[in-house]
Design goal:
A hairpin with a 2-residue loop joins strand 1 and strand 2. Strands 1-2-3-4-5 form a five-stranded mixed beta sheet, with helices on both faces. The chain is built from two helices and five strands; from the N terminus they run H-E-E-E-H-E-E. It is of the alpha+beta class and 125 residues long. The protein has one domain: Trna Endonuclease, Chain: A, domain 1 (3-Layer(aba) Sandwich), CATH 3.40.1350.
Length: 125
């Protein structure tokens, strides 16, 4: 059965809600959700101690296309990096420690499995 765009959007939004709750419980402070600029969008911007964290959320309901955490390819990393640099410049955080995390969520009938991948990738350009 083919998923519709609205199904994907619903899954993505639910995944982001789950990720925000998970990050808060892990001690992160949420700064912004769905930050948009000319280069695209970052799902979540948060603080983990003194570190600014750019978070990509990946949600899956099945294993058909692999593990959610493995689905962030080079082009996505490059796009997220560009957006993060724009955010840092726009908010004058150039001297701030920053990293990229991925929250991988499997939405299973028996419950959600959430995996936080800290420092998931380096700045890509």
């Amino acid at each position: 059965m083919k998923r519709t765009t609205s199904d994907k959007i619903r899954t993505g939004r639910l995944g982001e809600d789950i990720a925000v709750n998970y990050l808060k419980s892990a001690g992160y402070g949420i700064i912004e959700r769905n930050y948009r600029c000319v280069f695209g969008e970052i799902d979540i911007i948060a603080r983990d101690g003194k570190t600014l964290v750019f978070v990509e959320v990946r949600s899956r309901k099945t294993d058909r296309y692999g593990e959610p955490g493995e689905s962030v390819g080079l082009s996505k990393k490059m796009k997220i990096s560009k957006i993060a640099l724009n955010y840092l410049k726009e908010n004058r955080f150039q001297d701030c420690r920053a990293r990229f995390d991925v929250v991988a969520i499997k939405m299973l009938p028996c419950g959600n499995k959430v995996e936080l991948i800290k420092n998931a990738f380096d700045l890509a350009y």
